[in-house]
Amino acid sequence: MKRGKLRVLLGAAPGVGKTYEMLEEGRRLAEDGRDVVIAVVETHGRAATAALMEGLPGVPRTVVSHRGVELSDMDLEGVLERSPEIALVDELAHTNAPGLRHPKRWQDVADLLDAGIDVITTVNVQHIESLGGVVEQITGVAQRETVPDAVVRDADQIEVVDLSPQSLRDRLSAGLVYPAERIDAALSNYFRLGNLTALRELALLWLADEVDSALKSYRAEHGIEGAWQARERVVVALTGGSEGETLLRRGARIAARSAGGELLAVHVSSQDGLVSGDPGALAAQRALVESLGGTYHQVVGDDIPRALVDFARSVNATQLVIGVSRRGRLATLLTGPGIGATVIRESGDIDVHIVTHDAAGDRFPLPRLSGGALSVRRRVLGFALALIGGPLLTWLLVSLRSEDTITTDVLAYQLLVVLVSLVGGIWPAVFAAVMSGFTLNYFFVAPYYTVSVADPRNVWALILYVVIAVLVSFIVDRAARAARSARRAAAEAELLANVAGSVLRGESAVPALISRTRESLGLAGVRLVDADGTVVATDGEPVRDGRYEAVTVARRNGGPPAMLELHGHVLDASERRLIDAVAAQLSAALEHSDLTATARQAGALAETDQVRTALLSAVSHDLRRPLAAAVAAVGGLRAAGPNLSREDRVELVATADESLATLSALVTDLLDVSRVQAGVLAVSLQPVDCAGVVLAALDELDGGPDRFELALDPDLPLVEADPVLLQRVLVNVLANAARHSPAGSRVRVSTSRLGRTAEIRVIDHGTGVSPERRDDMFVPFQRLGDTDNTAGLGLGLALSKGFTEGMGGTLAPEDTPGGGLTMVIALPVADAIPTEERSLP
Question: Is the pLDDT score of 453 beyond 70?
């Protein structure tokens, strides 16, 4: 029997329209004459979904009694007996009622497919097994119902039913997803804008991976080898060397330039099983690539360039990152082009990036002028050329010897001396000249095989060989010195240009100068120490033996000088001139840093002055009003004396009492905000029951059910908070919400938990606050245009934010669906405190 086809409608969250889309497709297929049956559909009380079911035949559900509760579920046997052409099965990850054939609905679907029935089903991304942990991190909600990835991936068709996060929230606010009593809780928790955006991205990326797998299968089936650049894939080649971290971070930056970019690291090991590379370094690099969101791969092959290119093609890579070769020019000349050149030649349409790294030498070290002009390596090569080339040349010339070839023999040995002097300099050239002179005399001057100097011409020939060798080697030595001096001058010019330019980089100038100086001079370590012993910047290894050279860096503003400490080798005269130039630039950079710090202090003073001005303005009005009322009331009492009636006396005393209470509250707020800004707020954290604090705040405000609506979570755990400060926060936020709510509208207070955080949400339906002005809400003495002088100094929200942050929480504004402002107080959960120990503050 032919197996049925599975079509999956994938959604990022409940309410995006998966079931609606499934029913619409079922109706369309039924109109085309297909036998479509509703096996099971969950409407969740949505009228539009239920309306689409009308006219479509369905199989009645089976009812199971479990612990006195009747549960209805899909009747698998009934659907198999009905044997439709297409079955509509909602919620693929659903857990079946106990006692049915299978514990999971996706297992029922497998039976339908085996029976040759095509199935259209729905599933949300949070129910895919491999994504459960990621979804829990995003939403704070653990998923108990999951479906294996393989079940979904094996589907013949997977479609994403997409809806923008804001549109989904609008549908939720309009009551099209959940009943009215669940809307606020849903919007405040699972259906946050950030959560929905992350879930949408997760669904699209999961589907992109599935599409990529299908693309690989298609290319393999049709023998397509060229890269199809559907999205950026960066392969980084690792050798096990120290440069791996540099290559991985460069590859990660390349992959991050495009949405959906993918990073893959690969190490090629030899077929004989021998370790090629440091296992510890490879393990660390594997951990790094995984932390960067990439994957690690290891392939076997003796032809490393071919293995790299084959792997890149197999994963449809668009970029290949390799390190610059560690080999020198001579090694390249002797052994041919390296891996990089071969990879570039064979990569075809894959872009290849060759990245420099520390293992290939410092970026631009200054050439050393001390010592001989030619390196020890070149001198050794010169001696080797004389020792190897001399006998080979002698063997060749002896085999062709005759009386007429003496001139050719002399010129051949002369050429050998010149070559040796070009490679190794003066001492290998002298050695080659002496050896060639004795060889000529022994093998090519009669009598043969004797060393005779009786003829003065032989002596002159030997002298000429030595003189020519010395002259040629002298010229080679001078040319080498001139070339190295030119390289040194170019390097010094680049260093000075870099040093001068780095001053313009602001705060990064000093570290850049220190790092560049160490690299260019080849030092082990460099650091800049201030006069008080503070290390301003450092680069390289610390001083181990206490020996270093110190250079004074004067400050142009007359402050105490800093010290530039250098260690690694003794500086020569030219390096000291460079250090003096570096010290001058460091002086300018330090002056720039000092000026920047002074500017910051001036900015802080300006802000403080603004606060002081606002404070004086507030004192001049808000404090004067209750003070003047109290003074007038007390003055009236004293002036009238015993002639004042009892009613007037009570009224004046009440006025004085109210004014003094207002004055006391204003002064308390001023003291509190000064403590918050000074960072000396005393906080006593303890496990606190949010519900108790909310009720206490409402009692303080005399808030009844006509003004406030409560939706408190009875299972909310205790939070870590200061009960006194938390009550002050709630009083300020609740009073502010009540003040800005329209007449007849109630302020809603709800509590919920999101992961390890508990939230208290104060929701009003007033005019709200535009996003660009929300930061101004928490500035002291700001009332956002409120001209009601009875509202106080404008310190309520500033104090509330300071108190909340002092308790380790946050206070943030959000839009209320339908208009208004929602203030969210988030505090850490005190999980360690048992529920029965909860107590009111």
Answer: no
- Three-state SS string across 467-491, please? HHHHHHHHHHHHHHHHHHHHHHHHH
How many Cβ atoms from other residues are within 10 Å of residue 258's Cβ? 13
Q: Which of 472, 200, 235 is nearest to 351 (CA)?
A: 235
Count of C-beta atoms within a 10 Å radius of residue 494: 14
pLDDT of residue 650: 76
Residue 256 token pair = 């991050």
> What single string gives the DSSP state of each residue in 283-300?
HHHHHHHHHTT-EEEEEE
Which amino acid, residue 491? A
Reported as a single tens digit per residue, the pLDDT across 706-749 is 889 898 888 888 999 888 778 888 888 898 888 888 888 889 99
* C-alpha closest to that of 780 among 639, 598, 613: 613
Q: Which helix (H) or strand (E) holds 465?
A: helix 456-502
H-type helices in 528-645, by residue range? 573-618, 624-640
In whole angstroms, how far apart are CA 414 and each of 380, 439, 466, 479?
Answer: 20, 12, 10, 21
Whole-model pTM?
A: 0.41
> Are the C-beta atoms of residues 254 and 321 closer than 8 Å to each other?
yes
Q: Phi first, then psi: what are they for 688, rounded to 5°? A: -130, 140
And the tokens for 319?
A: 């970029």
Angstrom CA distances, 598 to 553, 556, 589, stand at 20, 15, 14
Burial (0-12, 13-18, 19+ Cβ within 10 Å), 21: middle
Cα–Cα dist 673/667, whole Å: 10
In angstroms, the CA 694 to CA 692 distance is 5
Lowest mean pLDDT among 460-474, 720-734, 821-835: 460-474
Distance, first Cα to last Cα, the chain: 70
- Which tokens in the block code for residue 74? 């899909």
* Helical segments of 619-722, H only: 624-640, 646-678, 690-701
Contact 314, 350 (CB under 8 A): no
Q: Please name which of 728, 738, 662 lies closest in space to residue 704, comparing C-alpha atoms.
A: 738
Q: Mention every residue, 6+ apart, whose C-beta is less than 8 A from residue 442.
A: 448, 449, 450, 451
In the block, residue with structure tokens 């809603």: 748
Task: Please give the full DSSP string across 46-84, using - where no structure is assigned.
Answer: -HHHHHHHTTS-BPPPEEEEETTEEEEE--HHHHHHH--
Long-range contacts of 784-791 (CB under 8 A, 24+ apart): 788/739, 789/621, 789/622, 789/625, 791/739
